[in-house]
Amino acid sequence: SYVLTQPPSVSVAPGQTARITCGGNNIGTKSVHWYRQKPGLAPVLVVYDDTDRPSGIPERLSGSNSGNTATLTISWVEAGDEADYYCQVWDTSSDRVFGGGTKLTVL
Amino acid sequence: EVQLVESGGGLVKPGGSPRLSCVASGFTFSNVWMSWVRQAPGKGLEWVGRITSKTDGGTTDYAAPVKGRFTISRDDSKDTLYLQMNSLKTEDTAVYYCTTNAITVADTIFFDYWGQGALVTVSS
To answer: Per-residue pLDDT tens for B56-70?
Structure first.
């Protein structure tokens, strides 16, 4: 089965850039999607198809995907960005479509 | 505005068979593939299963942990998605989210809209 690996936590100071990675075998050949989940709330799609943003998601959030790593980059981090972030691919050979999640802490 | 509203959660004994419902509005429900995603307390997201649109066969697909125990169905006349859960185990305790599925040009799926979730607690 296909496994997505995320760091459990990432910490960054306000105004800095946060990079949340999602590792997988040749993930660069797949479409990667990202979700943000704040405590007690449902997840929200923030990036799809590696780099596209749904309407309402600020340009500060961007995605990239190459080789064995996809990355969600959050520029000019704000306190409101503090949340859990999950990557996702659709692999018909695997049930495990989500990464384990990364908790972003804004210091 | 897309809205997905789940109901039917609660406290269930092991072996129980609750059914969750998800009422959709704000889009043409019959055209959309739908999935259930769950999240155990303090844990990550886990895809449960999906159903295609009737136009695409109305077929279902399930994750291994629930295959044979859970059934997803839809009633397009009521804009409602269902999750019938049988033979529940304590490890099925989770918030269950109803989601719409978007299909990309690369023929992959992502979950573009989510309901607020329904908590199912399996305990004796």
So the answer is: 999 999 999 999 999
